[in-house]
């Protein structure tokens, strides 16, 4: 539960790899929502320079605050926690969890880049893979499962440059990083990054 929570709310959701769309099997949907909702109030939001104990700071600018609030004021889904700007100086938004999100909603189709998590129910592997891969983006994805066979099946079929299993955000300088579709091409880090700095010569002799 905590892993899925911080996959999105780490860095206040302002990350290119934020897990802002969470698919949960319908058999445990309510249980997961309750668990996520229980974590949210324990998160301290405020200026880190005033108190380094704060877990989350503000969104980056007034422009970004307006964008985030635009998602929240759109009336999509059901607000479980948060949902509005905090009543204090600064661009602060609490961890916001939105339930009952459908694939056609902006929350499921666009990048929020803020502390907003959309939670969607799914019924089976083919269902969740088809819907997850329908996104025009493909930088990163993650899955939580104890079933190793299922992990291999889903990881192979997910259209994303990075797939994290039972974790989120792990990285290493030796591991390639990059996306597919509108999330880019080519890779940073790892041996694959060397190709960005090479000049291959092709010589034809007839």
Automatic annotation (TrEMBL):
Pfam families for this protein: Aldedh
SUPFAM superfamilies reported in the protein's UniProt record: ALDH-like
Domain Aldehyde dehydrogenase: 2-203
Listed PROSITE patterns: ALDEHYDE_DEHYDR_CYS (PS00070)
Keyword Oxidoreductase: yes
Transmembrane stretches, start-end: none
UniProtKB keywords: Oxidoreductase
Protein name, as recorded: Aldehyde dehydrogenase family protein
Organism expressing this protein natively: Devosia algicola
